[in-house]
Amino acid sequence: MRTDLWGWFNRFAAQAIISGDPLRQQMTLLYDKGWESLRAEKHDNALDYFETALQIARQLQLPCWVLFFDYWCAETLIFYKNTYQAGLDRAVRMIAGAHKDDYVDCPVRGRAYYTLMYIYYAMDVIGYEDKIREMITFMEREIPLDDDTFQRMQYTQAALAQATEDYTTAEHIIQQYLNMTIGNAHRQSGGFNMMRLIAYARGDIAQAYEYALQSETHARYARLQNSVAIAILFRASHALRLGKEDEAHTLHQRGMTHFERYHLRPLPAYYDAICEYHELAGNLPKARFLRQEQRRAMETIGSPHYIAHAHLAYARLLGRLGEDTSDALQTTRQKADALLKPAHFLGKVDAVEGGNYYRYAWQADNDTSI
Length: 370
Fold this sequence. Notes:
Blueprint: H1 5-19, H2 22-39, H3 43-59, H4 63-80, H5 84-98, H6 109-124, H7 129-142, H8 147-163, H9 167-180, H10 185-201, H11 205-222, H12 225-241, H13 245-261, H14 268-280, H15 284-301, H16 304-320, H17 326-336, H18 343-353
């Protein structure tokens, strides 16, 4: 089932202009201002615009617009400000209201459900795996989806397969996703980054480098500054693995400059890219410091998954450096208590305790591998 979300939006905006209703005009213009603020990485401004528009929608007693701007507030908290607990609380309250009769025919309803599904993924992908799959089935059967939401669901299914290390399924789904999103630079950037992750997991660094380049190219068209920076930083670490030291150094400096220029918030991918770069470059104290910083940074985001894996990455690094891992592993096990289904994760911790300090088997062939 499909719905035309932006056709609905544009018809309302046009009617607001024709009718001369200043509040309705202001409400739709606030969305434009909010979206432009998101693209400019001014997330607090965007949230203020969406919250103001939400109050206007309530004042005008327009249920679908209330849901529309409530969704954008949740989207901003989760995808842009990366305040996951606040985003989860908001998404849960939003979906509790979306069940009511007033919202059943709202074209934004699918996006509201997707936002809750994604925050479950970001908080604890393995723990919420069953719930995520149930939500995907429910949405596909029961809720009309706009094209963009349908595409994002496809991406999430690929990401779920990648997170559970089913790389064949992940690749199959993401190739379909790339085919259906041709012409959409935003979605293509994410799709090629997923292909990069899969290629890297398989040890195909040359292909991973090419996918990072394609991800960066599309991210620039879409003005996704975080995706631009991350793609450049991964190109740097991949180039270093390929023996292109001068290119790697130039790319790393360019990626860091881009990251700092837009005051981007560091997420796991950022640390994975720069820590790998410094370790491969032989700057081991810097890599160690950054993994320690990652552990602190993930606490502020509030994702049990991010926190546990930050501690695991640090323990692996200590092992590769020949340092004692006992305290780090003990802390990592404690962090695993927050996961709903910790067995899968604890198996990786056990592997480190047994002397396997690498995420992927191919990395063990090189003692300087991440």
